[in-house]
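Q: How would the structure tokens look for this protein?
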Amino acid sequence: MKSVLYCTFALTLLLACSRNLHAEESVPLQRDWMINLVDGMGWTFGLPDEPQDADYLEILEGRRRYRIEAEQARRPTDMVSAKDFTSFGEFSGEGWLSGIATPTTAHLDFHLPIAGRYRVSTSLLQPGFKISIGGHSFQADGGKAFEPVELGAVDLPAGALEIIVELPPNGGIDYLELQAPNLRPVAPLQGWNPGAALGREDLAVTVARLLDLEPALPPAGLPLIIEAETAGPFSGVEITDIRRMGEPSGGRWIRSGNLPAEVFFAFEVPAAGVYSLALRGTALSEQTARLNERFEFTLNFPSYLGAVEVGDFYLPRGLNTLQITLPPRAGLDSLSLQPHGSRPDNYLRLAGLQELSDPPTIAEMNRLLALLAALGPAR
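A: Here is the predicted structure in token form.
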């Protein structure tokens, strides 16, 4: 919380000091802020040589799952060929990359928008591959038909990426996939509209998201409680009223047996906004969870029914989902969602801009970027 307060104070101070310095400035567009944000944060390594709006948006969106189709990423000078027949099983994309009767090497070129530690997987035909990426080499075997293969994890910088695939005789590769946990998106409340004029609420929201200040938004009302036994669908759990692990909030809770179990919370929120999520449960080992098919995280429940904080997330109005993989002999009691004030004026107040009605200027934008470059995270 100290870091949140420090960021909030620094942001407020900087913007307050710049209020009287912008009379002669023109009004920037959201595109100006989007481009300068990526530039100012040092994220340009993830851009192509001639970036378009979509390239900046991809970095700010924060999704990190990329499938590189081998037949599209290959170099034309390599001794390989693209094929599209299905004699060796189904493939993704337009085709797959085939080797020759002797060992050969293919080079795949790819531009990675966002750096990170990525899990690498592929689909291979025939045993005896060596795949090199990011300074690491993986030995891998395919089957008599294409089959998925997990290679491992590797740290990758943003930018141009070369993947070297050493194929065995008559080997084939369909794709190579890179996956890392998604980052929180940095965007105005209504999403980016590059041609629209930049408003102070756009600045306030994007800065709050970039600096992870949204947990400092004020609570708004009572928490929503969803009892686990009323959620669903379940697989491999039973509903119980046993109390020796603690008093369940709704009188009952769910628990897994001797095998891991999948629990799927489908819940609706009445309004889009920031919610603090907490789960009450028990387990003897770590659990994994996935929110809205986007955010992945791990949980560590106590050995009795107790609450753990999941995190603060901006949830869309309506249906949301939380999928949890419970280890054996674990249980869930309830999901709690504490809403936060998430209107534009809440963000403006958080950023110290609530008293300003005139649009921001280029000069203000540049001063704000200097602060963000010092406080903001790497991407």
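The CA atoms of residues 241 and 304 lie 14 Å apart.

Residues 17-24 have pLDDT under 50 and may be disordered.

Upvote if useful.
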